[in-house]
Amino acid sequence: MKIGKLVAFLRGMFRRRSNVQTQIDPALAEQMRMTLTMVAATREQEIGCDEAYAFLDVYADLISRGEDASALMPLVHHHLEMCPDCREEFDALLLAIEATSA
Ligand SMILES: [Zn+2]
Questions:
Q1: d(C-alpha 52, C-alpha 76), whole Å
Q2: What is the distance between the alpha carbons of residues 61 and 66, in angstroms, rounded to a whole number?
Q3: Of 38, 93, 87, whose CA–CA distance to 60 is shortest?
Q4: CA of 14 to the centre of ligand 1 (A)
Q5: Is 70 exceeded by the pLDDT of residue 10?
Q6: Number of folded domains that form the chain
Q7: Which domain, by its residues, includes 8?
Q8: How far away, in angstroms, is 67 Cα from ligand 1 center?
Q9: 29 falls in which pLDDT band (50, 70, 90)?
Q10: Coil, strand or helix: which one is 71?
């Protein structure tokens, strides 16, 4: 399934990058934005908990780096606004990231 492949791709990309502690370069951010815009176009303007959850670590990673995560990943942002369960999960994840990167 296409979404699964995309998630795996993004996760792999971030895992490699987070190892070397680099900033997200603008080209990568743009590529992600385009990819997610494309996903949005094919899947209407909402995602479910499974998809939000799949992107949660990437989203939290963006925020912990001071990136404009809500602009880069608007669907995830929207889902977190709507869904207390995922929001709770996200808050915990963000705390964990900030605790380990401090
Ligand atoms: Zn949810």
A1: 5
A2: 9
A3: 93
A4: 22
A5: no
A6: 1
A7: 2-101
A8: 22
A9: confident
A10: helix
